């Protein structure tokens, strides 16, 4: 980023000019008078100048926001004054804080009813906005934020709405569904936001937006944010807004010049293995891996830890104290990799981050700019690598067009590359270790082994090097080489891959794996991390032995490399998750008619994806098949 001014979209602390480290030097009496100085430029506003309530100002300070972005400095005062606002701004300019902070000042936490509604075109954006608003409101006692969107079960959303959540963020189709079901009432609505309004109307939600607005009181305050202002948006403004103030900012389209930007085409089911190999061959002191949602952050973080990577996860629901500890570990070097959502990474300023990996392609090009801005700081160089699924090249072109830079395509390191990299690092440390001495014991043992075995010294050195870097020879999996197809993947994205290859049905084992059934499911609170931990801990296995996990209502199916011995089955069977024993047994597959034994229903792979912890979910059924939005992203 060329703009050095910190804001909520680029919260890097301001850096004093290196030209005058101590500020302007006073003119000495002996020097000739110079020409009158030009008037000083007016100081740009800070968040402290916006008169936010103390609890929100504290949240802003905690997130590291110093100076508001242009859309924030213009929109926030108008919204705080109670005016309707039309904001013409791209994603990535800080508009979530521009409408979210004033929204929270209009909400009464003591009133258990829907008081604020944000409509977003896609479920990904709805989740991100809800996460951001929750982060802003962490210190507001009694305030609840709920996101509602298609492809997710109604039950949890209905329960959250019934408890009287004050802020609702959702896609138009699902909001209407809840209105019709009587789960959501808008009579108490005070504040309404249309986020990315032009995208909503382009996706065909015009009638849905009109219907939702018809349920809201006339006295509500409305904020409309849109990248463009086509006639349809102007009509919405004329019909539903009262004397709106219009603010407009230009898009940010620059990236840092000291960051090497590359991409690799990686089908989703191979992303975790590819990520492990990229990290294994990187010389960066620390890395950030960006994902779209908090559940994806947990899944990817768990996958890396199971591979021996020192990784941690932060998302909007991580408590501030824990977040501070994680960031401090990153700064001091005891943490290698941070897996983060866009919202959670705001305000993160760690100089030693040398690599940014976009595990998921950002939804908007501007978000890409902010992500890669986490590296290449303080005069250092950095690397940014984006994983692009075969069907996502259009998104890549949009990023290149916005940033006016061409990303270089690379190949993911192979297992051989990983071993070669580790061997080079091992050999580079040899001279220093030899100089430190105290090697008599090892020389004695090596001499004895060479004499008794007749092995060539060069062969012995090669074997020791292979052992040291974890290469166990043919037939063994190299680090990060296995196809990662289980609990750590989001089913919706995996199902949407356009590489033309099928995948096994739930419970059908991959080659070399055996499918086992454990007696805990999502109704017991089972999550993949807990299942993996119990099986590896009690069975003496490592994370690479665990493959695909399908979590059903009352049980789960786990693929394990090879077959378990009787004593392993006995130990694992007595392990407990959430107070319930696993009772593991080999799975005998589905009965005729598509029903598994004991009458348990298969997870629906046609809609949605994996919920938190890898649990599958499906959307509501309607005439003509499952209802889905365009490209499987949002809407109903």
UniProtKB/TrEMBL annotation:
**Positions of the Helicase ATP-binding domain:** 76-247
Positions of the DEAD-box RNA helicase Q domain: 45-73
Cite the Helicase C-terminal domain residue spans from the record.
274-419
* One annotated GO molecular function: helicase activity
Q: Outline the segment boundaries, as ranges, of region: Disordered.
A: 1-48, 472-515, 581-636
Write down the InterPro entries for this protein, in alphabetical order: DbpA/CsdA_RNA-bd_dom, DEAD/DEAH_box_helicase_dom, DEAD/DEAH_RhlB, DEAD_box_RNA_helicases, DeaD_dimer, Helicase_ATP-bd, Helicase_C-like, Nucleotide-bd_a/b_plait_sf
Sequence motif Q motif, residues: 45-73
Organism of this sequence: Brachybacterium kimchii
| Name of the molecule in the record | RNA helicase
* Bias (Basic and acidic residues) ranges: 490-502, 583-636
Keyword entries, A-Z:
ATP-binding, Cytoplasm, Helicase, Hydrolase, Nucleotide-binding, Stress response
Q: Which family does it belong to?
A: Belongs to the DEAD box helicase family.
Q: According to the UniProt entry, which residue ranges have a biased composition of type Low complexity?
A: 1-45
What EC number(s) does the entry state?
A: 3.6.4.13
């Amino acid at each position: 980023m060329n703009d050095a001014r910190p804001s909520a979209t680029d919260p890097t602390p301001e850096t004093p000019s290196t030209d005058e480290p101590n500020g302007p030097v006073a003119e000495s009496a002996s020097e000739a008078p110079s020409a009158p100085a030009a008037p000083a430029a007016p100081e740009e506003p800070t968040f402290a100048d916006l008169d936010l309530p103390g609890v929100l100002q504290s949240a802003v300070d905690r997130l590291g926001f110093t100076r508001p972005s242009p859309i924030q400095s213009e929109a926030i005062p108008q919204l705080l004054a109670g005016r309707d606002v039309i904001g013409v701004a791209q994603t990535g300019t800080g508009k979530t804080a521009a409408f979210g902070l004033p929204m929270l000042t209009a909400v009464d936490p003591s009133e258990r009813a829907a008081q604020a509604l944000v409509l977003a075109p896609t479920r990904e954006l709805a989740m991100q906005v809800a996460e951001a608003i929750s982060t802003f409101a962490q210190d507001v006692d009694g305030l609840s934020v709920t996101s509602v969107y298609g492809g997710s079960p109604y039950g949890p959303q209905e329960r959250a709405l019934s408890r009287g959540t004050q802020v609702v963020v959702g896609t138009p189709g699902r909001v209407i569904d809840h209105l019709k079901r009587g789960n959501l009432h808008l009579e108490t609505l005070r504040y309404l936001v249309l986020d990315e309004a032009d995208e909503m109307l382009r996706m065909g939600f015009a009638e849905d937006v009109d219907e939702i607005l018809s349920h809201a009181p006339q006295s509500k305050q409305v904020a409309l944010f849109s990248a463009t202002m086509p006639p349809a948006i102007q009509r919405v403004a004329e019909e539903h807004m009262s004397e709106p103030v219009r603010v407009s900012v230009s898009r940010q389209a620059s990236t840092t010049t000291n960051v090497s930007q590359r991409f690799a085409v990686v089908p989703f089911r191979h992303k975790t293995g590819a990520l492990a190999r990229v990290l294994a061959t990187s010389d960066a002191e620390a890395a950030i891996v960006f994902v779209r949602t908090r559940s994806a952050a947990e899944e990817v973080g768990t996958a890396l830890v199971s591979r021996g990577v020192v990784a941690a996860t932060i998302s909007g629901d991580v408590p501030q104290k824990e977040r501070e500890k994680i960031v401090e570990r990153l700064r001091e070097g005891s943490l290698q990799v941070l897996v983060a959502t866009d919202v959670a990474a705001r305000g993160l300023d760690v100089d030693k981050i040398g690599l940014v990996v976009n595990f998921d392609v950002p939804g908007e090009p501007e978000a890409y700019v902010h992500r890669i801005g986490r590296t290449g700081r303080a005069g250092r160089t950095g690397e940014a690598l984006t994983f692009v699924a075969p069907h996502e090249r259009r998104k890549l072109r949009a990023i290149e067009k916005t940033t006016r830079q061409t990303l270089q395509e690379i190949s993911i390191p192979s297992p051989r590359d990983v071993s070669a990299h580790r061997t080079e690092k091992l050999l580079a440390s040899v001279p220093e270790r030899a100089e430190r001495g105290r090697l008599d014991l090892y020389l004695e043992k090596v001499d004895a082994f060479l004499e008794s075995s007749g092995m060539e010294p060069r062969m012995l050195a090669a074997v020791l090097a292979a052992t040291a870097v974890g290469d166990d020879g043919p037939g063994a999996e190299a680090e990060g080489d296995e196809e990662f197809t289980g609990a750590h993947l989001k089913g919706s994205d995996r199902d949407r891959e356009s590489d033309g290859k099928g995948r096994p049905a739930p419970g059908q084992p991959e080659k070399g794996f055996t499918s086992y059934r454990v007696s805990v499911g999502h109704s017991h609170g089972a999550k993949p991390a807990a299942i993996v931990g119990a099986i590896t801990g009690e069975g003496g296995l490592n994370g690479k032995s665990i493959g695909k996990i399908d979590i059903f209502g009352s049980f789960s199916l786990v693929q394990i490399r090879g077959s378990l011995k009787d004593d392993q089955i006995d130990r694992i069977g007595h392990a407990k998750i959430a107070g319930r024993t696993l009772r593991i047994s080999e799975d005998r597959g589905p009965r005729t008619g598509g029903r598994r034994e004991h009458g348990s229903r298969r997870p629906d792979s046609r809609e949605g994806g994996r919920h938190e912890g890898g649990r599958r979910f499906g959307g509501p059924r309607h005439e003509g098949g499952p209802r889905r939005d365009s490209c499987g992203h949002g809407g109903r």
